[in-house]
Amino acid sequence: MTKSKSRKKSRAKEKETNWQERVVQIRRVSKVVKGGKKLSFRAIVVVGNERGQVGVGVGKAADVIGAVRKGVADAKKQLVEVPLTKSNSITHVINGVAGGAKVFMRPAAPGTGVIAGGAVRTVLELAGVKNILAKQLGSNSPLNNARAAVNALETLRSFSEVARERDIPLEQLYA
């Protein structure tokens, strides 16, 4: 098989996993240099497959499209697995921290929907969580809030993990 055919197959495989990307924020930033100001853009991007994988990335470039492309690549490098319940909620109450941002998340009953704001809502939707209550505390920064949400989701433990750690059967954990 030639290299081009294997590349096409890997690209097709990538598209099969249907990653969704959402831009949370685009900022125009300037750096003062000897000749004046140099303008560039910073993009915060969330990437997820709505089946338990999500990542947050930041890209900086001279143009918006380049910044978003770099943000997507960065987000794909930092993917985390999220254990979801059958009702598409999280398994237990959790807190996440990143910088000055704190995020509190609590599982919700089926039909509740995603009750969260800003960047946390985007992270949860792209992770595939359908029923959850979340609150941002401490900071209004979209980047820190998104990272705090990812931090909370990666520290989640599934019921089977907890049962294995306690050396008890899974049925006894539910009782």
Describe this structure in words.
By secondary structure, the protein is of the alpha+beta class. The protein has two domains: about 5-80, Double Stranded RNA Binding Domain (2-Layer Sandwich); about 80-165, Ribosomal Protein S5, domain 2. Helices cover about 35% and strands about 35% of the residues. The chain has six helices and eight strands. The chain has helices at about 5-15, 65-75, 120-125, 140-155, 160-165, 170-175, and strands at about 20-35, 35-50, 55-60, 80, 95-100, 100-105, 115, 130-135. It has a four-stranded antiparallel sheet with strand order 1-2-3-4. Strands 5-6-8-7 form a four-stranded mixed sheet. Helix 3 (about 120-125) runs parallel beside helix 4. The longest helix has 14 residues, at about 5-15. The mean pLDDT is about 90.
Give a short summary of the structure:
The protein is α+β, with helices and mostly antiparallel strands and 175 residues long. It has six helices and eight strands, in the order H-E-E-E-H-E-E-E-E-H-E-H-H-H. 37% of the residues lie in helices and 33% in strands.
